[in-house]
Amino acid sequence: MKWEIIVELKGHHNEVTSARFFDDGKRIISGSSDGTIRIWDATSGEPIGVPCTLHDVGVFRVSLSPNGELVASSSIDGTIWLWNLKDFLAQKSPYPYGSIKHGTSLVNSLAFTVDGQKLLSTSEDHTVRLWDEPKLLFWLPPHYRPTFVWGRCKRLIGAEATELDFSRFKYGDQWTECRTDAVA
């Protein structure tokens, strides 16, 4: 049996280190040592959207959650980014959920559990780590997210900043105390 090339994906500027099909077989996601992640049409070979550039150094592995909504990508410095694929493709910002640090060595592999609630990572530091999905601290409606200021960011240029008052914030077993009776 002879395999034939039916499409070639060109666009990365350095070696391609990881690629996989989406479950539907219609798209491909790839990572490169040029620090980018690209999504491709599997039939035409054309890129879909712009390259994802979350990593400061080369991307070594990419993995998709079973529902195809969450992407995990790792780099040679031990950083793993978790990001929302739908928001990225729609060019909504911010699309990353955040990063986790496996260590300081190359992350060799990434794999989600079948339910997408845990992520497995392996590294050249001789470790296998199992990550639990972060729990939601609070929910911010999507239309407020682009103007939400957090931490040391105190000013937003060109828009009115969304600021939250956490002085009466309740969490854990205290969440039932978040409601107060209306003052007459």
Automatic annotation (TrEMBL):
Keywords: Repeat, WD repeat. The keyword Cytoplasm does not apply. Pfam families: WD40. The keyword Repeat applies. WD repeats lie at residues 9-50, 52-86, 100-132. It comes from Sistotremastrum suecicum HHB10207 ss-3. This is WD40 repeat-like protein. Signal peptide: none annotated. Gene3D superfamilies: YVTN repeat-like/Quinoprotein amine dehydrogenase.
